[in-house]
Amino acid sequence: MIALRNNLPLVCFPDGRIMNFERTWLATSLAKAAERAGYKKWWLASHVTESVTSYFEQDFGENTVTITGLEKAVQSVLQVIGYSDVAGEFAASPPPARISLEELARNAGHGYELAFFDLLRVRVREALDAKAQRLEICDAHSGVKLLRSAKVWRRDCSGLLEEIVNFVREEVVSARKEEMELQLS
Q: Model pTM greater than 0.85?
């Protein structure tokens, strides 16, 4: 038997994508369902998330869970605690898309910003095509330092990072009308 990280199952989507079970992703999906049911800033989202996570950690015997199985588990908890209206609105969001700026910088080659931005555009469009509602840009500082051939963070690194963030925002805005949450780390 394979032991999974944190003893949580992998989540399988109908299109074949697989992701690690993530509390943040589930809590976001719950908050959106609650908002659709008429509860703004629903305080129970984190508690329901912990309850479902605990079930999958301790009592779920499989290494994978389908998105349908996950949704049923969440809806079951919501109905038990008296929030059938939220249960009726619950549907798991598409998984967040992650882009490592360091990985893109390495693939673009040392100091080739044009190739970097082309790769970034492709990855952002892939995220949009997958209907991700959250885009996580990670390894930002290490990726920018690699592009600038800098050992330490410099003023020109801040400028390039701002240019990258603006580029991503423009790509998202030009491609879709609905909101996409951006996270930079």
A: no
